[in-house]
Structure formats: structure tokens, C-alpha cells
Amino acid sequence: MSNGLRVLHGEFGRAMLITLESSITLQAYRTCQFLFRVDGPDMEVSVRDGRHRLSDDNVIMLNAWAAHSLEIEEDAPPVTLLVLHIEPTWLRQLGRQFAACMHPKFFSTPSGVIPASARMLVDELVDMIAYEPTPSSTQLEQLAVALTTALAAEYSEPKRLSNFETLGGVGCDARIRKVLSVMRESVGEPIVVEELAKLARMSRPHFFHLFKQETQLTPMAYANMMRLDTAIKEISETSDSLLEISLRLGFESQGNFTRFFRMHLGVSPSQYRRSVTVIAPEQPIREAVASSNRRFGEYSRVGALA
């Protein structure tokens, strides 16, 4: 559960400060995600088959669709995190070095020491989220550009990656690619593995094995993450009631939706809606890149990875 939350939501993705009191179950997002510990004790983050320590000096870097969970020891004090989600469509506009940003190995390691060039950016982003009543979209995007670029310069080798290997890309099995397309177009509809296997023209066991091999998620987990992603967007960007959203996403009641949302994010949908500020862009992405380069200098310059 969480007692503290503020979210800035925009075209770049979302930046949030959240205070967690307990562990968060398995989750995966289509965004690139960065986790920084702001306050409280160190904690463990499980990423696929490995466990990584999140401390004051380390950052957790999660590639698109990387399955992970946040583990807080029982009776441990609350932990405050800065969590930054970067939208792939926005990130690709920064330059060709981010063309493969949805590759499962875009960031070569899930954890690493925060580069000296990024430390100031993290502190400034925390201050903006915590204290600015009306944050500037320009400054927010400048920080997102600079921080993403600084981390990618240290922990990504885009020239060695193929965009074909992204989830649902050309390198993905064509049968699974077809199923993923159908699932994305029918978020909220009941998931019947036998029907998906039939669509892929496979037996249920073969389909289940191949789906998890290609996505690192089970069909149900993938469907749930699509529902969570859609829920976050609709809670943030529409005035639809939580009941309307929950029914549209296939939940039998708002209570079931609330339990699902809290299990994955640590907060209720109503708390999330009260805490989110939607930031409209003030300038085209290319201008944000140019202004970020001017403001933060060579260490975060977009193009350094190309």
C-alpha cells in the first residue's frame, strides 16, 4: 500500500513520487522505466530471474515489458521512490539511437550506479514533482530527455540491437504477433487461452509455452498489463467514472477493479486520480531536445549514442 503519491502525466510518459509500505506484485509495462530510491531503506527489485538492490547510489532500469516486482521486507519502514516511465513513441522522436527502445536488451543491465551526470537531474525532478504546484511542461521534458540520455549513454549499446527483436516486432513468431495484435484491440474482453491457441493454430500447451517464450509473460499476465496501462491512461486523461472504466475493462465491479489496481500500483484508482496532474506539451519534441542540450550540456546531449 501507499500513503504518498504525486504523478505528472504527459506525452513523454509519467513521472511519479510514491511512498510504498508493502511489496508490489508482478508487473510489466510497455514503457521504459527508471526507479530511484528517494527515502527509506534499500529494497529488492526482482527482474525476471534476477534480484537487484535499489539503494541511494543505484538506479533500476527496466526495458519495455520486463516483468518485475518490488519487494519490501515485512515491518520495514516505508520507501519513497521516484518512478519515471518513458513512452516509446515519444522516445523514438529523440533520435535514431532510440529506434530500438522497445528491445528487451535496450538497457544492457537492470541495475547500475547512477552516473554523476544524472544525479543532479534526479534531484531536480524530485523537487519539481514534490514542490511545484504547476510544473512546467518544458522543464519536465528537458529533464526527461537529459535523464534518459544520460542513462542510455552509460548503459545502452543501441548499435548492437535490432528493432526486429522487440515484442511483437518482425523477429517475433508470426503466430504470436497475430495474437498480440488481437489482444491489444480487445482490451477488457475475457481471455480464453484455448481460443487464443486456436487463433494461432496451435495446441494449448504449445501456444502457452511459445507465448511465454516470446513475451516473458503468460497470456493472462499480458492481458492484465494491457488493462492496467489502459486504466492509467483513462483515469488520467478522461472524466469517466471509475465504475465506467472498470466495466469497460472487463471487471465485474468497481471493487474488483480497485483491488486489481491497488495490487499492481500500491494505490487505489481514486487516490491515483486525485494525485495525477496532466501536463500539456508547450513545445515540439525537437525543441525540447534542443533546449535540453543547451541547458544540461554535453553529458546529456541527444545524438551522443548515434
UniProtKB/TrEMBL annotation:
<protein>
    <submittedName>
        <fullName>Helix-turn-helix domain-containing protein</fullName>
    </submittedName>
</protein>
<dbReference type="InterPro" id="IPR009057">
    <property type="entry name" value="Homeodomain-like_sf"/>
</dbReference>
<dbReference type="InterPro" id="IPR018062">
    <property type="entry name" value="HTH_AraC-typ_CS"/>
</dbReference>
<keyword id="KW-0238">DNA-binding</keyword>
<keyword id="KW-0805">Transcription regulation</keyword>
<dbReference type="Pfam" id="PF12833">
    <property type="entry name" value="HTH_18"/>
</dbReference>
<dbReference type="InterPro" id="IPR050204">
    <property type="entry name" value="AraC_XylS_family_regulators"/>
</dbReference>
<keyword id="KW-0804">Transcription</keyword>
<dbReference type="InterPro" id="IPR018060">
    <property type="entry name" value="HTH_AraC"/>
</dbReference>
<dbReference type="InterPro" id="IPR020449">
    <property type="entry name" value="Tscrpt_reg_AraC-type_HTH"/>
</dbReference>
<feature type="domain" description="HTH araC/xylS-type">
    <location>
        <begin position="177"/>
        <end position="275"/>
    </location>
</feature>
